[in-house]
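Let us practice reading a record.
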Amino acid sequence: MTDAMVSIRNVSKSFGSFSAVDNVSFDIRPNEFFALLGPSGCGKTTLLRMIAGLETTTEGEIFIDGEEMSTVPPNRRPVNMVFQSYAVFPHMSVEDNVAYGLRVAGHPRNEIAPLVAEALDMVQLPGLAKRKPDQLSGGQRQRVALARALVKRPKVLLLDEPLSALDAKLREHMQLELAHLQQRVGITFIIVTHDQDEALSMADRVAVMESGKIRQIDEPGTMYENPTNRFVADFIGRVNLLDANVTSAPGSDVVVAIDGIGDVPVPKASSAAGQVCVAVRPEKIAVSKAEPAESAIRARGRISDWAYYGDVSTMYVQIGGTRLSVLIQNETRETMNSLDIGDDVWVTWSPTDTLILDT
């Protein structure tokens, strides 16, 4: 615990017979940007609210900077929170919104203005102090909420889906701004989100939750390329999940039989046996009309469907009883004209891009 800013120890939270958080334990490091990621109802917001003191634990302990928090009320904890709705006061100016917490805490009046100015500089709003919230864009209101949370210099900043109300382009821009802000202020950030792109682009580490439990904690790249179970692989990014049967395990490989594709060698990551789940990301698969000269994994199928997204397209290839999605980068204007629904094609990918997953 001495090396952690936040320590969660065997924490559970029940609402009647419903277990929202189920025996969760992990540490969050000082100055880390940490993401709690998962679908609605998985327990991530409940866990964040317990760190803030807005919910009590049914079991377990929460430590912040080495101090156990069970008897510490929310207003005494070294945390601050930014809510999904921002909760800025519409009748107050930007500077009054940011100063509000300092005034309530009885901060010396002569020190408030410099601290407010510093906080507005942090979030790049130095010239908007006199404006009211209805004179600001969505992104600017979000930054006001951040400034108000940061002005008291908490040890931990809690962010409850802070970007969900923004449009797609602004959300992407604010993801980068939040990551840069966290690096500048050097405060531990904990963000709750259901948006995988948000978590992967901003966080140093990500915890994926399902049904109140932590399914995996890892750095974004490790979690994407090496998910430890079927749920995480399916929730993070796009993936082909294929039912298969282990037929042999020669040397360092496991050979699995996939319907329509046949025997596929997969690097041995565990003592896999019997029926297994095989995963391969769509962007790892290549497709061509001509038969490939060499490939460890290859199969012939027919394009059954096509979804166009502008910069990329998703092609669906039917191979016997197996349907594969393939990500096509639209690198040129001609990409869309080279293949069409109904075409016979070959799909290929590397054994090293194939995973056997726990269920």
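A brief commentary: Residues 168-185 form the longest helix (18 residues).
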